[in-house]
Amino acid sequence: MTATRTPFSDAPAWVHRCATDPELQVAGRDAAVTFAVRSDGARVVVTCDRGRFALGSGTPEFELAATPDAWARFFAPDPQPCHHHFLAMRMRVPGTLVEGDERAYAQHARIVHRVLALGRELLHGPPAPDPDPEIDRSRISERYVTAEVEGSPVDLHVATAGTGTPLLVLHTAGADSRQAHALMSDAALTARHEVIAFDLPGHGSSGRLPGPIGSWTLTTSRYGDTILAVVRALGLDRPILLGASMAGEVCLEMAYRAPEAFRGVIACEASEKVPGRTTPWARDPRVDTATFVPEWIAGLIAPRSPRSCREDILWTYSQGGAGAFAGDIDFYSGDWDGTEKVPHIDTATCPVVMMTGEYDYSCTPRMSEQTATRIPGAVFWEMPGLGHFPICENPAAFAPHLARALQHLGGPRD
């Protein structure tokens, strides 16, 4: 790309901005770390000492390295997919590395990512996200239902709003049914659909399955069994199934395993296989998962997502139970493998819609599209401006895509 200014050329101003940033004062108030950001010959060393930030001169514990071209794209005013966040570059852009103590990076990821974001702000000013949505939670009714999962009764928290064709919404890994609140607040949607969401066992307000705290692991069979148990317990008549990320994957599983139980599935951010998203730091006792897990997923949110939506997603992820996120990733980027299943999905019985946000670097639009081509009768489209959490990261941008998907499935026009 053409030459683009980067903050490496004005390191003192960059670090001064860090020293006066309220978010970094909170993130770094109990931290003591020195790290570097490197681009070939350019190198900026940053020291945080209990909330005080300064240009460092000592040996960094770790370094973030990328090519000059990658950093130029990262620090652009409107960064494109796979260059909008350091973890996106690390996964998808060759030459992007963390060198040194990886655990120290995981322990201080919130600080590191904020320092990088401030480098972009130094050049272009604060970001201008889309407007915050108005979410009316007074529409939502909540209760518990007892479902039998793997032979054990478990009390599951269920939220509902609206009347009409049931739309069963599944949450992402380590999260809970709050991700469906914006849909439940959508008057047009709830006039035609009963929107239903539940918390998986050990998530949100649901009870746990038997076993030591922290032992949760999600498998394809356990996930499918739980969904079918909820459908039975609520007496749902062939609901439409909607989910993103791991919930999008299980939509494909349910279309294969129990097509007669659903009117159709809407699989967002899904593929037949998603490698490369496990992380040892989600279970490491030396890493605070309440701060690390939100940072691990933050770059999956599209850059222009409303601020309140972004913060709600991160806050929900910071509240996950011990081992809940890591146990879900056991399914998302491990146990789930639909390679041999997806060609045999009967879309005449259970239609399949797949759609993926352009900023999703975990399950890219290309990955989803390739899977859709292997499902006879499935349809796919990319969602511009959205990321990995389309249901909750930008409800206004997601609404027309959901309406189009529901129309394709033969439901009421929303």
Please explain how this structure is put together:
This is Pimeloyl-ACP methyl ester carboxylesterase. The chain has 414 residues and is of the alpha/beta class. It is globular. The protein has an eight-stranded mixed β-sheet with strand order 6-7-9-8-10-11-12-13, sandwiched between helices. The mean pLDDT is 96. The protein has 16 helices and 13 strands. Helices cover 35% and strands 19% of the residues. The protein starts with 10 loop residues before the first helix and ends in a 6-residue tail after the last helix. Strand 2 and strand 3 (52-55) form a beta hairpin. The chain folds into two domains: 7-123, 2-Layer Sandwich (Nonspecific Lipid-transfer Protein, Chain A); 137-408, Alpha/Beta hydrolase fold, catalytic domain (Rossmann fold).
Given helix and strand content, the structural type is: alpha/beta
Specify the helix fraction band: 25-40%
Work out the strand percent. Answer: 15-25%
| Order of SSEs | HHEEEEHHEHHEEEHHEHEHEHHHEHEHH
CATH architecture of the largest domain: 3-Layer(aba) Sandwich
**Basic shape:** globular
CATH-derived topology of the largest domain: Rossmann fold
Number of helices: 16
Give the averaged pLDDT, no decimals. 96
Which consecutive residue ranges, at least 5 long each, have pLDDT under 50? Answer: none
Overall strand count: 13
Give the CATH superfamily of the largest domain. Answer: Alpha/Beta hydrolase fold, catalytic domain
Quick recap:
The protein is an alpha/beta fold and 414 residues long. The protein has helices spanning 11-19, 22-27, 68-74, 86-92, 102-107, 109-124, 181-184, 187-190, 220-234, 246-257, 289-298, 307-318, 324-335, 365-372, 390-393, 395-408, and strands at 32-39, 42-49, 52-55, 62-65, 97-100, 141-149, 152-161, 165-169, 193-198, 240-244, 264-268, 352-357, 379-383.
